[in-house]
Amino acid sequence: METVLFWVLAVLALAGAVLVFTCNSMARVTFALLACLVCVGGVVVVLGLPYLGVVIMLMMVMEMVIMAVFMIAYMMNPAGLMPMSMLHNKGGALAISTAIFLALVTGIWLVPWPHRSVKRPADTTFQVGMSLMGDQMLSMITLGVALLATMVAATALATHRGRYDRFGDDLDQRPADDPAGGGVGR
C-alpha cells in the first residue's frame, strides 16, 4: 500500500510541477505549486518522516495562501488571473534542466548508497525535532508568534487608511470622500 501511495503522490507532484509552467496566470500557478508541494510533503510522510512531511505541507499551504492574498490585494491585474507566460529563455532553461536532471539520475544510479547499520528510532518525529531545534523549541515557538505579530502589525501600519475611512469616523459621511480617487463607475 505504501508503494502505491508513494507512486500516486509522486505522479501527482510531477503533474503539479508541469502545471506550474503551463498555466497562464499567477493564481493558477500558485495553486498548482501548492498541490505539487503538498504531494511532496505526502511523499516525505510515506517515506517515514511524518513530522517533516507535515511541516512541509503546513509551511507550503501557508506560504501559497499568503502569496494568493497578496496577489489579490496588490497586483495590477485582477487577482493574477490575466494571461501571462511562466516560460522565459525556453532553450536555455531546457538545456540547463536536462543537464541537471541527467546528472541527478546518474548520481542516483552510480553512488554506492550506504546500508542502514543501526535500528531505526522508534519516534522519528521526536528525533527530527531534536535534530532541528534541540533545546530551543520554546524559543522557536515564541519567535514564530513574534514574527506573525510583526507581519500583522507591519501590514496594519503600512495601510494609511482603512476600507471605511472615506465615510468618516462615524461612517455617516455621504457622499463618501475618497482621497485616493477612482472607484466603481468613474
What does this structure look like?
It contains six helices and no strands. The chain has helices spanning 2-22, 26-46, 50-74, 90-110, 124-133, 137-158. α1 runs antiparallel to α2 and α2 (26-46) runs antiparallel to α3 (50-74). The model has no long low-confidence stretch (mean pLDDT 82).
What labels would you give this structure?
186 residues; mainly alpha; 6 helices; 65% helix
Radius of gyration: 23 Å
Mean pLDDT: 82
Report how far apart the termini are. 60 Å
Q: Tell me about the biggest sheet?
A: none
Helical/strand content category: mainly alpha
Strand proportion, as a percent range, falls in: under 5%
Shape: flat
Element-by-element helix/strand order: HHHHHH
Estimate the helix proportion, in percent: 55-70%
Number of strands: 0
The unreliable regions are none
How many distinct helices?
Answer: 6
Give the secondary structure arrangement, pairings included.
Blueprint: H1 2-22, H2 26-46, H3 50-74, H4 90-110, H5 124-133, H6 137-158
What does this entry show, briefly?
The chain has 186 residues and is mostly helical.
